[in-house]
Amino acid sequence: MDKMWAGRFSKETDSGVNAFNSSISFDGRMYRNDIAGSIAHATMLGEAGIISKEDSAAIIKGLQSILADIEIGRLDLDMNAEDIHMFIEAELTKRLGDVGKRLHTSRSRNDQVAVDIRLYLRTEIEQIKNLLKKLITVLCDTAEKHSDTIMPGYTHLQRAQPITFGHHLMAYAQMFLRDIGRLDDTNKRMNVCPLGSGALAGTTYPIDRMLTAELLGFSEPMANSLDGVSDRDFCIELASAISTIMMHLSRFSEEIILWCSWEFKFIELDDAFATGSSIMPQKKNPDVAELVRGKAARVFGDNITLLAMMKGLPLAYNKDMQEDKEAIFDAIDNVKLCISTFTPMLETMTVNKQNMRNAAARGFINATDCADYLVKKGMPFRDAYKITGGLVAECIEKNTTLEELPLECYKAKTDLFDNGVYEAINLDNCVKCRTSYGGPAPESVLAQVKYVRERL
Ligand code: ARG
Question: Quick check: 427 and 360 in contact, CB under 8 A?
Fold first, then answer.
């Protein structure tokens, strides 16, 4: 088949080079966006009088019929084509003859591909946001159910202070809410139109870039044609936003993995979301969570791929940039896959309140509350801290808990102690009293749930 750019060459392209150069196997997924961009371009060419109104209308009709044929499976993408742009244009010309050859007037594949990716990513961002919203909804629902389920909060993976399971979950809700914000920010900067930048230097035709930008739903045309064709910041920003989502999912996965171990047993995954071992009959493994954690690594890799690909490129377009698509598509595909598997896993897990409670009862996580009790009686915090440390050491020595330690042991340290201390270190009270804004008290968890739902 003759190349569209064959005029200058006296030899056929080497078949290995053809295969090496071709991107249709991965950019084929942008066919809808390519057609949308071409329809806007053809509309503008007609409006501006660059081609006749009849030609413009015929091209638009031709493009619409190609789209319909691809959608119903009547037209397959030709994997021997150089890329999706060449394929659609060649198909149009096959259908319309000379009229089809007018579509590419005052346009280059360089501004064409730049517009296609932006259009494609815009839809994907919406989908990722919707998946995140579903995930956050499940978090809110579960947190509401567990607003008063006591568990130990950790630092250094050591039991630290009492919190509620609902509070723990709502921390993740906040992270995913920020992730939605990051996607919105990326979209804002991405949503400007490179079409009309031409190959790099604009065009001598009287094109109307305002019109194409508007037709395609962009906020405005990009202001510099060199930048228009060589900017891939939006891919990097999106990959970075997706990396952050994956980092959050990965941390969450790590906790899920810990929580369903025999050591914790805070939760149990539904059988439909766990896997077995080929040799150990007793095993029930959290493969989904582990795979999400693993996939975070490859998405970070995609992010780095994009940065490294761009770092040495002189202006304007360079073929290196064809590599942008596999990286950003991989990040998108994987984050969508991860969220949509993670959410139902979360939704179906069983929470073992009693085990959380038992863990909270061991580890002296009410020691701060014991010290605070003395502070409320007038003792400076540092002194109260020291006395409580002594009490904890005594408990460890006697193999008991602060709750079970007799009052005379307390009194031996300071007369400020009376029976009220048991009230103060009672786990339910410890949590109930942590009503500071953003704290773990049941009423605060419910307020957090309300806050997040309002912002969804
Ligand atoms: N397939 C190419 C890409 O994805 C399209 C742009 C080609 N432009 C060019 N000057 N060779 O980047």
Answer: yes
